[in-house]
Amino acid sequence: xxxxxxxxxxxxxxxxxxxxxxxxxxxxxxxxxxxxxxxxxxxxxxxxxxxxxxxxxxxxxxxxxxxxxxxxxxxxxxxxxxxxxxxxxxxxxxxxxxxxxxxxxxxxxxxxxxxxxxxxxxxxxxxxxxxxxxxxxxxxxxxxxxxxxxxxxxxxxxxxxxxxxxxxxxxxxxxxxxxxxxxxxxxxxxxxxxxxxxxxxxxxxxxxxxxxxxxxxxxxxxxxxxxxxxxxxxxxxxxxxxxxxxxxxxxxxxxxxxxxxxxxxxxxxxxxxxxxxxxxxxxxxxxxxxxxxxxxxxxxxxxxxxxxxxxxxxxxxxxxxxxxxxxxxxxxxxxxxxxxxxxxxxxxxxxxxxxxxxxxxxxxxxxxxxxxxxxxxxxxxxxxxxxxxxxxxxxxxx
Length: 398
Prior knowledge:
The chain has helices at residues 2-28, 101-145, 153-192, 247-250, 305-308, and strands at residues 33-39, 41-57, 60-64, 69-71, 81-82, 87-93, 203-206, 211-216, 222-224, 229-234, 239-246, 258-262, 270-277, 282-285, 291-301, 316-333, 338-340, 343-350, 353-364, 368-373, 380-383, 395-397. It has 398 residues and is of the alpha+beta class.
């Protein structure tokens, strides 16, 4: 009986010793480092250059007072549609200065110059009309050959883009003709009403083109001077986007670069292409007080007009210039990469431990990076590795 009690005590003490040793082992052994994990996946990847821009009317015209006079109150409102030739403002003439022979000759010379401008604008409009007809004919031929497989989809897209561009140039040329005719009318009015003292005569300022009133600079009645802006007219259905980019970013894009507009207020994203990269830059002071050299980039919409007709002149949009894109691209979170000498590396989780891999990186975006070599699809990588993560360290997901 006594022996049984001693054996029980020995077994109890043995169990207590084993539990104590096990507890010391659990307390003193290195604990796995908690980390954020990401996965190497295949999917679409796009390298973009993002910047805010604003819309503007493609062709706007500032209607100015042709003579000094007393303007009657404008009866139109901003946003109202006006037809070409509609009377915008009526000017009650004041006694004009008499023109001497020199100033009269100058007025006649301005009329001759305005007539020459009208002729030049009409010729450019005829050339633009011919180019637009040719582009439309080329588009019809391309679409006829497309179902037979004689031309690719890219050729059809280029033909459609060229037809749209030619149509826009034709509209712009037609606006230029109307503007030149208005300048001629203004020059003739100056000479016609010089020295007039008849207060019963009214000078009607007419709309040079059909469109909507974008801005009214002088609505109430009052005296106006020659050349003083009265209203601005434009076609809000013909919009483009102007974006000011850093000069270092502007050299990375070219005419025809695809642009995506997101977070513009409507549903879905709009698309466009770079039309013009202006050759001259300008200096702009940033919010931090740093002088920057920036360049205006003009983008034309390629999405159907019905999708962006709710936009108006001066609306804010966020433009993403597509520098590169691919569909089936192996990629990892960009935060998993760190410098390793002259190259890049990342920590891959293998059997619960961190293993450093040298990675060959291709294109990079703000959130993801293309993996050319070094990591396989499906492998887990450590995002934002800190100084506790080293080769062979045990890790676990946070």
